Amino acid sequence: MNKIIHVDMDQFFAAVEQRDNPELRGKPIAVGHDAERGVVSTASYEARRFGVHSAQSIQMAKRLCPQLIIVEPHFQKYKEVSAQLHEIFHDYTDLIEPISLDEAFLDVTENKTMVSTNPQGMLAMDIAREIKQRIRATTGLTASAGVSYCKFLAKIASDWRKPDGLTVIHPDRALDFIDQLKVEKIWGVGQKTAEKMHRMGIFTGLDLRRTALSRLTQEFGKMGQVFYDFARGVDNRPVISEWERKSVSCEQTFESDLSEHAAITIHLYHIVLELVRRIEKNDFEGRTLTLKVKFQDFQQITRSMTVDHILRTKDEILPLAKQLMQGVESSDSQDDSADHHSRPIRLLGLGVSNPGGPAPSGSLDSRQQAWTELELEFEPWPS
What we know:
The chain has 14 helices and 12 strands. It has helices spanning 12-20, 45-48, 58-64, 75-89, 124-139, 151-158, 174-179, 191-199, 205-209, 213-220, 223-230, 261-282, 314-332, 366-374; strands at 4-9, 29-31, 42-43, 69-71, 96-100, 103-107, 143-148, 166-168, 247-260, 288-295, 300-306, 340-353. The strands form 3 sheets. The chain has a 5-stranded mixed β-sheet with strand order 5-6-1-7-8. Strands 9-12-10-11 form a 4-stranded antiparallel β-sheet. It has a 3-stranded mixed β-sheet with strand order 3-2-4. α10 (213-220) packs across α11 and α12 packs across α13 (314-332). The radius of gyration is 22 Å and the shape is globular.
């Protein structure tokens, strides 16, 4: 059986800033750009007590915590610390799958502590404990770790006793653990999905396991199979050390909301140009274009379109982006104005994904496809 560790740094960006600036220690801080449309990247635990959290607007965070200190991010410093983490990881295994700068999966089923004098090697729990100790000694920061037989449970376990926690979910106890788990804690269940599950009477992992697969797929499409498997402790995704970029994307939050069609088109045009630049920079090939729209009320939608050729140039991408935007406008229109969008837009994003190209019908495993879609992430617009 596999032995998977998920390592997740505690309040990473904020912790680095507090480590390097003693005056910030013990104080509520948020890392982010202090602007009208700025967003919290990471909040310290002192700030989280006031309800401040990542992806929240800076202005909302200030209202919740008037004494909040906003710290500009130092990404190069975070990358340097991340490199130190991976040096430690590689002392135990080369099967490392980075999720972000501050978290990664490690497959230690076969690991570097297995030597002729000790063919069994260290227990996964002991490896995780030693990694945590070395991270603290090397970086001055704390990490939380989860240990289990699959990625789904290892990731949940790492969040179970934060900060500085270590949780092991043994195969024999997996179902008991999942049964009492709130569905909001299940990987892939966001706010909207959780609300829908609650309306279906699904509040815990046990409720989810008691729900028929046919109903889950009817309500959640391809993700229904994923939720069905997770409720049974099934997650066969391997730890992938050879990381392959699945998407190239960018987004822009506007200083003031957009409502005029002309302004929306102009900004969409410039986002396309930035996306083309990133595609060229990463030498990326994809056939699916995804449009992301966040409205004034923070409701967010995405729309996608897959074509039979690789999307590289402005002339290839811009017409599709406009078509997707027109679909959003036509489905959302609530007035007869030809010049204004009915709901002001605060953010637009575009991404190209699907590097393998459109698969013939039935040839792509539905669960893998669902996770590919789930893992599509948008990179921030460059400052």
